[in-house]
Amino acid sequence: MTADDKTGTVALVTGASGGIGSAIALALAAAGHTVAVGHRSGIEAAESVAATIGDNGGQAMAVAIDVTDADAVDRAVAQVEEQFGRITVLVNNAGITADGLFIRMDEDQWRAPLDTNLDGAYRVTRRVSPGMVRNRWGRIVNVSSVVALTGSAGQANYAAAKAGLVGLTRSLARELAARNITVNVVAPGPIDTGMLAATGDERVEALAAAVPVGRLGKPEEVAAAVAYLCSDAAAYVTGAVLPIDGGLGMGH
Amino acid sequence: MNRTQIVDAVYDACVEVLKVDRSILTETTSFAEDLDADSLALVEVVMELEEAFDLRIPEDELEGVSTVGAAADIVARHVEAAA
Question: Does residue B61 sit at the A interface (CB-CB below 8 Å)?
Answer without folding.
Answer: no
